[in-house]
Amino acid sequence: MNGRGLVIAVLLVLAAGALSFAGVTAGQEMAKASNTPPPAASASARVQQESGEDARAEGERRFHANCGRCHQSPHKFPPRMMATIIRHMRVRATITDEDMRLILRYMTQ
Amino acid sequence: MLQPSLSRLRCKARLLAALLSLAAVPVAHAQSQAQDSEPISPVPIFSAGLAYNTFFQGGTAHLHPLVSPVILIPLGQNWLIETRETFEIDLAPEPGSDGDYKGSLEKEVDYLQVDYIANPHLTVTVGRFLTPFGVYNERLYPVWIRDLQSDPLILPISTGPSGAGTGAMLRGGFDATRKIEFNYAAYFSTLSTINRLDSDRAIGTRAGIFLPGPRVEFGGSFQHLLQDDHSNAFGFHFAWQPPPIPLDIRAEYARSHNGSGYWVESAYRLSQAPVWQNALRHVQVVGRMQQFFNGTVADDALPGIDTSMFEFGLNYYFRDDIRFVSSYGRQFAFQGNENVWNLGITYRLALPMWPGGGK
Hints:
heterodimer, A: 109 residues, mainly alpha, 76% helix, elongated, B: 359 residues, mainly beta, Porin, 16-stranded antiparallel beta barrel, two-stranded antiparallel sheet, 3 helices, 18 strands, 54% strand, globular
């Protein structure tokens, strides 16, 4: 492969990467807007979405496991209030750092 | 000779530029993700628990309004100032009067502490803090949380004269494995005789293990008094919320020279009832059994004699923050048995103290 061919190949990869990134962003926007998975999501977008759903499910599980230890599940608060409440609960109920991050993410989505 | 060399140089430059551009894509993506997961800025919060209970004990009615404001002030990413006060009145018929109810306002600073989150596994607390002996005093005490409005008989054991210590505390939690979480607290409290801020001079610790899968928590507490007779106290706690059903089972045991005892409580929310689900899912049924055995040294906050008690409660949640509470119990003691009834309502509110905090 000569130099020109190499440059074209790299540019093609670059374009594919940019399109993939644009697809992820657009897919996320569409998912936010319609709450349905983007129809033309790329493989990386699917992986990211699945990991996001896993984190949400894990956050929900930890929310019920930790918060339900003491009281009935509260309704969701605005994100900035939730950030304070979860810090208070971290101290009061000695929940772990990992629990705190996942519960905050779940409660603010 | 010069022409091919220049051409190769241009080619290398283009290749380098293309690789730099390619590298910029994941960097931009990572930056975008970092912005998505940027920490949310916390706001100060005013919260409060309110309750109005009517207790009927041994044929006498007690009216018991209570307000318990909480203020949380986060500073930066690692600091938190938090405080809770309690204002309550126990209105009872004045002896010899014609049904006049009288009572005085009782005020207490439950806690006023500064927390510093030193690292993911350690929080340093300084000030007046709830004594971490067992879990009821720290976690289940607020009127809007507790399932039965009466205190367990053993609650005053080793929590100090007002349920709080004054000094410093180290606490935290971490995942020991994916299926086991460990939590701990260790504290030093100094003697304080200041009105509404009183505490004992003591050191103590509590350690617990939480299994998130079966939702089981168990642990133990220890306290050594550094005043008077330098006595020791210890206790155990247990909690279980079986994941498939809305059932809470909790228990504590405590022993000190003032006495020993236990309580076992179970609460079941009827959200899975096969009939009338719209109404029954708001209903919670509670039962508690407890016993206290007198110790060698008397404590005014504890029963003076061996006492047993059972209670049944029925709570109705209008929303998750407002509920009607009721209970019936019977207390057995050497000096006589008596019935204890309770009817009341509890409410919890939380408001941001900063513009834009509600967004």
